[in-house]
Write a structure and sequence with these properties.
It comes from Edaphobacter aggregans. This protein has 67 residues and is of the alpha+beta class. It is built from two helices and four strands; from the N terminus they run βββαβα. It has a single domain, classed as 2-Layer Sandwich (Nucleotidyltransferase, domain 5). Helices cover 27% and strands 39% of the residues.
Length: 67
Amino acid sequence: MQIVSVGIDLGKTTFHLAALGVAGKVLVRKKFTQRQLLTYTANMQISLIGLEAWSAFSCTRVAEARP
């Protein structure tokens, strides 16, 4: 499982994360608190992180547009 892009939807107390693989398939979709999100993403090796407007739907569209 190689994650290439992550979309994070920021909220007041919870954050939603969607991670996409090379083929644009959603590999991870989780809900976190701020501390959990920082712990989870601290050592991720990825090439793209998108925040707010780059939610799971937007990241999927970006992944589909890549060659």
